[in-house]
Design goal:
Elements lengths: L4 H16 L15
Length: about 35
């Protein structure tokens, strides 16, 4: 999985961008801080 670190980071940024688009899910970001 770590072999494609760049792809993983891109997917993570895409997920964060998706979360940012939903203000009501902003609290959920604290749950994923362990990433």
């Amino acid at each position: 999985i770590t072999s494609n670190r760049v792809t993983t980071e891109r997917e993570l940024q895409r997920a964060l961008a998706l979360i940012d688009s939903f203000p009501e899910l902003e609290r959920t970001v604290t749950t994923f801080e362990w990433f």
